[in-house]
Amino acid sequence: MTQEIGSPEASRYNVKEAEQRWQAQWESSSCFEVTEDSSLPKYYVLEMFPYPSGRIHMGHVRNYTLGDVVARYKKAAGFNVLHPMGWDAFGLPAENAAIENNVHPAKWTRENIATMREQLKSMGLSYDWSREISTCEPEYYKHEQKMFLDFMKQDLVYRKESWVNWDPVENTVLANEQVIDGKGWRSGALVEKRKLSQWFLRITAYADDLLSAIDTLDRWPDRVRLMQENWIGRSEGAHIQFDIVDHDEKLEVYTTRPDTLFGASFCAIAANHPLAQSLVADQPELNEFIQECNRLGTSEAAIETAEKLGFDTGLVVKHPLEEGKTLPIYVANFVLMDYGTGAIFGCPAHDQRDLDFARKYGLPVIPVVGPKGADPASVEVGDEANTDDGVLINSGFLDGLNVTDAKSRIIDHLEENKFGERAINYRLRDWGVSRQRYWGCPIPIIHCDGCGIVPVPESELPVVLPEDVDLSGAGNPLDAHPTWKHADCPTCGKAAVRETDTFDTFFESSWYYAQFASPGSEDVGFTKEAADYWLPVDQYIGGIEHAVLHLLYSRFFTRALKQCGYLEAVEPFAGLMTQGMVCHQTFQGTDGRWVFPSDVEDRDGTPVHIKTGETVTIGRTEKMSKSKRNVVDPEGIIATYGADTARLFMLSDSPPDRDLEWTDSGVEGAWRYANRLWRGVFQGEASRAERGAAVPGDMGEQTTAVYRLCHKTISDVSRDLDRFHFNKAVARIRELTNALDNLGEDNDGARWVRRFGWETVTRLIGPMMPHLAEELWHGLGHETLLADTPWPEFDASLLVEDSIEMGVQVNGKLRATVSLPKDCDQATAEAIVYELENVQKAIDGKDVRKFVYVPNRIVNVVV
RNA sequence: GCGGGCGUGGUGGAAUUGGUAGACACGCAAGACUUAAAAUCUUGUUGCCUUUGGCAGUGCCGGUUCAAUUCCGGCCGCCCGCACCA
Description:
alpha+beta; four-stranded parallel β-sheet; 26 helices; 34% helix; RNA-binding
């Protein structure tokens, strides 16, 4: 909701003028441009670079504010700080914009970049803009074409068939997000799965390393490490080969529960399992079922949330351990071809999904694990499968063993009798990098009828993406281009065609952090010396939504680049901070349409639409999104209140990893604080000592307390910034500001402490409100840039307190507080505590059973 | 469906390793200043009650402990990711 702002122009702090002035000063002094310097400790701060979607949004403001605080703080703390920015410029939205607004993706992207660059500059971010990169330019993507060819030489690249979402009306491949309820988002046509030959990067070659190295990422959030671990999904189990009755081939399944083999009552295969495909010709109903499965699209979420369905193929397998027993083979929509062998055996008693399936299709449920000591006959299975440990029953030679022992015993048996073996499986799949899209990096490959697949020679790189394309037609514009795809085969010289697929845009973002080390270098995108100096990124900051894919691909890329000799780093990001979303209230008009906050005003406590005057309803607070229109444009906020106010608000209340709710009142609170600081320095000169005045010998009690608080605040804020507790740092600086304002004494000591205090506040707030801090620093008589000024130090001797205020509990309930000498012994504490009136009253003559005393923390008298 | 997370006053949040729940703000109320308003300043502000005190209270139910927002078990609600959005 936009309200009349307390006319900021009227304030004597001229935000706009001051912010532009300091931005110009930083730029002209080049104070954020860096070079490798082995004499200084390096610190590489990186925020996830933005997709140039048009204008910056509040999520960017939050992300880049967080990074800027870290960068400025580390610079002040004496590090050689690299803090770059660039553009993740390839991607689908540019093509959508091309279709919707008839503008070329290149033009659209470059214009967006120009707009967003100016917007970022207005935020006063401490970037080394000389290192700016844009991934859609050949100067950038030529390097990844070479990397791809190098990966090929290292056997990290291969080609295989894989499934895509196919829109039969538009004749294009759809992204998962373009498939809505199984239909194409534009055409509305039922989406089909199609098989295409595509390029893959062998990320699974590094599965074990990517998994075990998670332990070394000690400055990553635990939850992200856990998500990566689960994504890689290493499991230990077995492959089992089943003989199919009256069939030449065998059915191989992967299972993590070989111990439950005696409880198997069916086998199930994926719809696109070769066996299922081979049966289609004779079974039209099966074909129909498989088509139905294919209509679910390629998204795992869609497949797994669909109703579990199966189709009995009529084929049966022999149970390998029980003579004469057979199990039916179903095609099931919940079995994934990409996991294990694309086939399972179902043991309904000990797997919930199998149980649901068995109940639905009337299959037997045989419990094979029971509680210890239970009578096998009494173990029954209800609605819930038993996945607990226990003792094997109804399982022949496995009976009586626990689950772990049974697993190992049965695998030995499988191996001895040659119908199965121990197996390790990963959930992680190889990374498919082919995209049938225009706005991406061309894959440097030529297809020759005679020579097959031929890499483009390095001397002919880059393969430049043509800009004269027709985007209005169906299909891939590169394929439709009249000349581009025709090339001579590098090997035999005959006419051949280029690969018309482009790379997944995760390709660009998997190595950009390395390019920032030395952009513009010709060879490989960066020099090894620069990469080895700057990498890994010391602190990476971005959204939790990238917790798995982008981060995992980048980790893989670093390893692959190392394998190719590009750099020495093992991990790309030593530290990771994930930020929460920026949320806002939603508003709806009487017709149910979403209303922009800027179109809502408050009239006598009722929110109404500014133009129509009709009442709007306030909905729940949600992530800012264009569709719900609950967005606030950063540009307007910066124009009105200045970047520092927006930055302070972003940092003030919510910790970085939590969601933040944008509120006008919160912004105004930040704005008021900015003005308060300004007044404190520019209107409080009279009560402050001159710069450089000698430390006075005598200070009053209150003055001493404020002086000590200054040192304590430096210590606390430093620690808070080290731990990224920006909201706490802000609270502490505000506390110090309050104390300075409330310092009533006015003598030499107080005047000296006032100067010291305001200088301290200015320096501490510097990373968060850099423009205002420069203004204050100047106002305090300094000629140098605060951006070049070292972080303040504190005197540890002033932090020591000699007595501590402690709570006194009786039976766990607070009855009094008492000031005790620091580290005082229990006898002294007891003596003092028992004298307290409230304590005596609470004990009320009862026997003291225990006197709990934790020095400097708590006293608890148990009666 | 699977994986991960979050939940504390009217609101955002704070609370070392289990040790005085509500720091710092926002909002609100009262007051000061002002012709008036804005700005600014002061005071109060978890709820309830019999109000110099007491009881309850950190999504819900239970457990461990002298002591639980914090640890354990079970629920509920919301959010993020699920491999072609970035």
